[in-house]
Amino acid sequence: MPAPAPAVFADAEGFRSGFACFVGRPNAGKSTLTNAIVGQKIVITSDKPQTTRTVVRGIVHRADGQLILVDTPGLHKPRTLLGERLNDLVKATWSEVDVVAVCFPSDEKIGPGDKFIVNELGKIRRTTKIAVATKTDLADPERIAEHLLDIAELGRETGTEWAEIVPVSSVAGDQIDLLAQLLVGLMPEGQALYPDGDLTDAPEEILAAELIREAALDGVRDELPHSIAVVVEEMGLREGRDENKPLLDIYANLYVERDSQKGIMIGHKGARLRQVGTVARKQIESLLGTPVYLDLKVKVAKDWQRDPRQLRKLGF
Ligand SMILES: Nc1nc2c(ncn2[C@@H]2O[C@H](COP(=O)(O)OP(=O)(O)OP(=O)(O)O)[C@@H](O)[C@H]2O)c(=O)[nH]1
C-alpha cells in the first residue's frame, strides 16, 4: 500500500478527512453506492449476493474535505470458514472508521438480516451511525416514506442513534452528492490523507483480479459464484515496447472448487473463458488506461472455501 501523502488542501481551515464504510445485508447496494460516490468504478458489483470479499478503499475529493470509503462484504450467518473470516473482517472495519452507513434497500422490507446487523453494530459504541435507504428508483414515494419510518423505528428498537437517514439512488444518481456532503460533515477536522486525484489505494493486481471475478460471475448460477476466486500471479509492462505503445501483461488464475465447475467456466471449446477474458480485459484497460494482454487460466482448488491453507493462498 503506498504511503498516504498530504494533498493540496492539507492546511485549509475547516477541512475534514476520515473514513466511512457502507454496511448492510448482501445485495443492499453498497458497492454500487461506493462507485457512485467516488464517480468511477473501483469496486465490482453483481446481482449475486455476497459478491464483495476484499476491503477496497474509494477516495472522494471535495473542496471541504476528503472521504475515504471502505467497502465491506455483507454480514451474514457464516456457513463456511470463508464466511466466518468475512464477518470478522466486517466488525474489525466498523470499529476503525469514523462513520458507519447502514444500507437498507428501498425495494425490500426491513428483515431479520437488517436487525442482526444493526444489533451487532450497536455493540460498537463510539462510531457515528447513519442510515441510507438505497435503490429509491425501485420504490414509489409512499413506499420510500414507509421505509424511512421503518428505519427510524429500527433505530429506536435497537437503541441506535442515526445521525442522519438519507434516501439515495446510485443508478439514478439521486442524492448521491448530498450523501457525500453529509458524510464529509461528519468527519473529524484534519488534513487530506491521500494525494489529490487518487481514487483508490487498492493495488492494481487486486483491482484487476476483482474485474476478472466480476466478468466470471456474469451468468453463473447456484453455488458456483461463491466458488470462484481470482489471483493475479504476474502483472507488468512488457519489455522492449515503444514508450507510446505500452502493453500490460497480466497472468491470472481463476480458481473453482470442482472439475465440473472448471468445465462450466471454460465452456464449449473455451468460448465462455474467452468471453470472460475479453470483458475483463476491456474493464481493466478502461480502469488503468493501458492496453492489456490477459492470460487467464482456470484451475481447481478443491473445496478452497473450507480449507484454511488454501484460503490463505487465495488471500483471505
Ligand atoms: N435499481 C437500482 N439497482 C441498484 C442500485 N444500487 C445497486 N443496485 C443493484 O443491486 C445489486 C446489488 O448491488 P451491489 O452494489 O453489488 O450490492 P452490495 O451490497 O455491494 O452486495 P454484496 O457485495 O453482495 O454485499 C446489483 O445488481 C446492482 O446493480 C440502485 O440505486 N438502483
From TrEMBL:
Alphabetized GO MF terms: GTP binding; GTPase activity; ribosomal small subunit binding; small ribosomal subunit rRNA binding
Q: Which residues form the Era-type G domain?
A: 16-189
> What subcellular compartments does it reside in?
Cytoplasm; Cell membrane
- Provide the residue span(s) of the region labelled G4: 134-137
Source taxon at top rank: Bacteria
Q: Where is this region: G3?
A: 71-74
One GO BP? ribosomal small subunit assembly
Principal place of residence? cytoplasm
Does the keyword Cytoplasm feature in the UniProt annotation?
Answer: yes
From the UniProt entry, list the residue stretches annotated as the region G5. 168-170
Q: Which SUPFAM superfamilies match?
A: P-loop containing nucleoside triphosphate hydrolases, Prokaryotic type KH domain (KH-domain type II)
**What residue spans carry the region label G2?**
50-54
Entry similarity comment: Belongs to the TRAFAC class TrmE-Era-EngA-EngB-Septin-like GTPase superfamily. Era GTPase family.
Its name, as the record gives it, is: GTPase Era
